[in-house]
Write a structure and sequence with these properties.
Distance between the termini: 42 Å
Order of helices and strands: EEEHEEHEHHHHEHEHEEHHEE
Oligomer: single chain
Number of strands: 12
Shape: globular
Number of helices: 10
Helix content: 25-40%
Radius of gyration: 19 Å
């Protein structure tokens, strides 16, 4: 286990209910955990809590069995690579310069990169298949290229775990699949992986385990087959869903059409 939540509870100031309520999970090397759920279910709050970015009302977040709140910021950044949900391009850096930012937890604010840093950057660019873009300005990249560069920047940190919050937002089908294929390959190479996603069917195809949130609570947790139950999915997403199976064996949720007030599945 690298990163873990132990009965996490978060309540935002003035909120009548908890944003997270007794949420627990474990993320181990070589395993990809997907957290899914409807809007407002607590997915992004869970990421913030795991990274120590929000105060806990109860429970604890642990990194290598040590409370995250006790980790120095630099050490935490070296251990956890994060691809946040949203990021605006403020400065038109090159791809190389952008991925270099991932080395700052190792370099410090005033150090120039050395051979080890350049090797880590090159390795991350190659692993994410963007080495050919190294001299391109990031404001000229497509959405899919930009996401791969952001993953490369996280990999340049040489972390033990990769955390991605809605990494496929605004991507088309090809780039969604490419990104999940990349993340799965990185996990198979030994990284621990946590992905927050609205893409329930992609989670089922690529994740070892799905944690389903609703109202800040865990309502489903296990392998995709255990979570993909029509009655559970319908209750969580407030819409009737059927479940079929793809040729590769993965379960696949299919939203059902509703005629009038009927909720019969077809």
């Amino acid at each position: 286990m690298i990163l873990a939540a132990r009965a996490l509870a978060v309540r935002y100031p003035g909120a009548p209910a908890r944003a997270l309520d007794e949420v627990s999970l474990d993320i181990a090397p070589g395993r990809l955990v997907a957290v899914a759920g409807p809007n407002g279910s607590g997915k992004t709050t869970l990421v913030r809590a795991l990274l120590g970015h929000v105060a806990l009302e109860a429970g604890d977040a642990l990194l290598n069995d040590k409370p995250v709140r006790r980790w120095p910021a630099g050490a935490l950044a070296r251990a956890v690579g994060v691809v946040a949900q949203r990021e605006e391009i403020v400065f038109p850096l090159s791809v190389w310069q952008t991925v270099l930012l991932g080395r700052y937890p190792h370099l410090g604010p005033f150090s120039a990169e050395g051979a080890a840093d350049r090797a880590a950057i090159s390795a991350a660019l190659r692993r994410c298949d963007v080495i050919s873009l190294a001299e391109r300005r990031v404001d000229t990249l497509s959405g899919g290229e930009w996401q791969r560069v952001r993953v490369a920047r996280a990999l340049a940190q040489e972390p033990s775990i990769l955390v991605l919050d809605e990494p496929t937002a605004s991507l088309d089908v090809r780039h969604e699949m490419e990104l999940f294929e990349l993340v799965r390959a990185l996990v198979d190479d030994g990284l621990a992986g946590l992905v927050i996603t609205h893409q329930l069917n992609l989670a089922a195809r690529f994740a070892d385990r799905i944690v389903l949130l609703a109202g800040g609570r865990v309502v489903g947790d296990g392998p995709p087959d255990a979570v993909f139950r029509p009655e559970l999915l319908a209750r969580v997403f407030e819409w009737p869903l059927g479940v079929t199976r793809l040729p590769d064996g993965a379960p696949h949720a299919v939203p059902q059409r509703v005629r009038g007030e009927s909720t019969d599945q077809t």
